[in-house]
Amino acid sequence: MKTTLTLTGDKAAVFAAVEKYLGDAGFRVADKDFNRPWGGFFVLDEAQAKAFADLFFPDIELDTLRISGKLSPKILMVQPDTRLSWQYHFRRAEIWKLVAGTAGVVTSETDEQGSVQTLALGEVIRLRQGQRHRLVGLNGWGMIAEIWQHTDAANPSDESDIVRVQDDFGR
């Protein structure tokens, strides 16, 4: 299956196209949120983590992605000219891949932000537990395949495991 899309139109059209793409690829959407100020996301069925990794991260052995055993696949959609919060996590590492559109990333070991690195289509970024990071929308929509690598098997990460150092939306 082709792993890239053309992300054009308004927000509703972009999300509808991505949802159709995911369904055509056989993925079950477990949750979705299209109302984030920076765009939104699709949470995919965790039972499909292997299929997700096979499609979006074919050069990485599934076992090397596992830290505590559980993996959570997700698609992030970042809209043009917006930024997610400058953040880090206590209970997960993440791996990202730009699969369609354009996006940038900022990373740091400290609370000090560096410059935006433009991601190349197909580029993979590994974010360690505690590493500061921010996804940045550039001149068009960006679609990022993301796997949460849970670091605490007894207490898997969730949406509350976000420490926001800075946020453009006051959250």
Average pLDDT level: 92
Radius of gyration: 15 Å
Low-confidence stretches: none
Structural class: alpha+beta
- For the secondary structure, the number of strands is 9
Tertiary shape? globular
Organism: Chryseolinea lacunae
InterPro entries: Man6P_isomerase-2_C, RmlC_Cupin_sf
Protein name: Phosphoheptose isomerase
GO molecular function: isomerase activity
Please provide a brief summary of the model:
The protein is built from 3 helices and 9 strands. It has 171 residues and is α+β, with helices and mostly antiparallel strands. The strands form 2 sheets. Strands 1, 2, 3, 5, 6, 7 and 8 form a 7-stranded antiparallel β-sheet that branches. Strands 4-9 form a two-stranded antiparallel ribbon.
Task: Describe the protein's architecture and organization.
This protein has 171 residues and is α+β, with helices and mostly antiparallel strands. Helices cover 15% and strands 42% of the residues. It has three helices and nine strands. Strands 1, 2, 3, 5, 6, 7 and 8 form a seven-stranded antiparallel sheet that branches. The chain has a two-stranded antiparallel sheet with strand order 4-9. Strand 5 and strand 6 form a beta hairpin. The protein starts with 10 loop residues before the first helix and ends in a 5-residue tail after the last strand.
Features:
alpha+beta, two-stranded antiparallel sheet, globular, isomerase activity, Phosphoheptose isomerase, Man6P_isomerase-2_C, isomerase, RmlC_Cupin_sf
